Fold:
Amino acid sequence: MADTTDSPLAPRGAGRAIAHFWMILGVIIVAFPVYYVFIASTHSTSTILRPPLPLLPGPEAAANYGEAFSGRIGQIGGVSLWRLLGNTTLVAMGIAIGKIAISMASAYAIVFFRFPLRMACFWLIFITLMLPVEVRIQPTYKVMVDLGLIDTYPGLILPLIASATATLLFRQFFMTIPDELLEAARVDGAGPWRFFKDILWPLSLTNVAAIFVIQFIYGWTQYLWPLLVTNSNEMNTIVIALKKMVSFTDAETPWNLVMVTSVLAILPPILVVVLMQRWFVKGLVETEK
Amino acid sequence: MRRTVFPHKLLPWLLLAPQLAITLIFFYWPAAQAFRQSVLREDAFGLKTTFVGLANFRKVLGDPAYLNALQVTVIFSALVAFFAMGIALFLAVQAEKVIRGKGFYRTLMIWPYAVAPAIAGMLWLFMFNPSFGTLAWPLRQMGISWNPLLNSNHAMTLVVAASVWKQISYNFLFFVAGLQAIPRSLLEAAAIDGATRRHSFWTIVFPLLAPTTFFLLVVNTVYALFDTFGIIHAVTSGGPGKSTETLVYKVYNDGFVNLIMGDSAAQSVILMLIVIALTAFQFRFIERRVHYG
Structure:
C-alpha cells in the first residue's frame, strides 16, 4: 500500500528503527565532547586527572564555578571570567551589528542610487571575498600597530566587520524589492531615510536576524586575530584566555577551572544558535548558496 | 535593472564610506603590502631592504619545510573534507528516513557549529590526551601506545577528528536541504520500477545532490585551509616535528614566531592565489548551475 504522506526515502518498521539508531549514534558523537567538558567542570582536578571520568555530574560544581568567577586564575593574570565574557560579548556583538550596519548601508547605496563608479565600488567590496584575514595577517598586523589599535576593542572589531558576504546578501535581497514599492513611496514624498525606515527595514528583518546569528558566532569564535592584537590579559577574549590556561606539560594547570572556562566559552554561542535556530538555518542554507 | 532610484548624488557616497574605508585600510592596503614585501628582502638587522624580484618565491617553493607544509595541507584537507561530508551525508539520509524527532535531532546536530575551532580542538585533546583523557584510557588499556603529543600519525588523527566534528553540523544542514529539494516523483517512479533503496540512492539521489556536494567541497576546502588554524594551534602547534604544520600555520609561524617577513609575505601571496582560484572555481560552477538549472 502506498503511503503518500511519507517521503519515498522513508522506510517503515525495521528500516526506520535503524535510521533512528544511526541518528542517535550521530547525535551522541556530536554532543559527547560538549557533555564531557560539562561533566568535567563539576569534578575536582584530582578526579579529572584520574581516568576514566565519571559519566555523571560530580559534587564540585559550586566550588569550581565559584572559584573560576572569583578571578584568581593565575595563568591568565587573574582576570575574572566576567571580564573575559564581557570582552567576547562586546567583540561578537560589535562584529555582528557593525557588519549589518555597514553592509546594509553600502548595499542600499549600490541598489537604490545611481552614481559614477557605482559598479567599481561594488567590485571593490566583492573582491575582498578573496582576502581572508589569514592570508594578510602580517601586513594587517602592521597597520594595527601603526594606527595604535593593539589591545583595543576597535582593533579587535574593525578589521573583521568589512564583509563582502553580508553586502552581497543585502544587495541581492534589495534587488528583489519591486520598483512599484519605491515609486509609490516616492510619490508619497518619502526620502531615502523614510523609505529605509518604514519599508525596507521591516522587510529585511528575517535576513538581519539570520546574518546576526551567523556573524555573532563568527565573532565569538575568532582566534587568530584576537591572538595577534591582544597582548594584555585584560583584553583577551575567552577563547584566547582558555588557550593560555591549558598546558599539558605544566603540573599547575587548574584543570577544573579550565573545564569551567570551556563550558562558559561554548555555552553562549550554542544558546544563540539553538534559540535562533529557525532564522539561523534559513539564513545559512539560503544565503550562502 | 531598477528603473526608479533616488536622485541624490552625495548620499550614496556617505553610505558607502564606512565599508570602503575599512576595506581600503584593512584589506587592500595590507594586501598591497604583502605583495610589496614578497619581492623585498631585509638584511639581518632590519636596516636595509633590497628588491629581490621573485627570489622569495623561489626560496619558499624550494624549501623542503614549505613543501612538507603543502603536503600536510593537502592530506589534511582531503581527510577533513571527505569525512566531514561523508558522515554528514550519511546522517542527513538517515534524518530523511525518520518521521518523528527530526527537529530534535537537528537541534542536537547543530551545536558544534557554535563552538570555536580552537575550543573544538581542546575538547578533543581533553578526551584524548595521553595522561588523563577518558577516551585515551581505553586505548591504552587495549595496548595501543596512544600519544598524539609525540606520535605524528596520532596527532594528525586528532586534529582531523576535531576538524571533522566541528564541520559536520554545517554540512548536515546543507545536505538535509539538498535532499528535501529532490523531486519525490522521481523516487516514487524508481520504486515502482522495482529499484532498491540503495540503487536509487546512487543513481538518483547522489547525482541530483551534485550541486550541494560541489558547493560543500569548496566550502570544506576553504574551512580546512583557513578556519582550522585554531584547532592546529591549540592542539599540536604544528607538531610533533612539523607533521601537522599546514600552510596557514606556517605563514603565522614564519611571520610572527620566526619573523622572516619576506618568506611569510611570499607565502601569503601564494595563499591568496589559492583562495582566488577556489573562488573562481566556485563562481564558474555556480554560473553553470544557473544555466542548467
About this structure: The mean pLDDT of chain B is 85. Chain B touches chain A through 104 residues (CB under 8 Å).
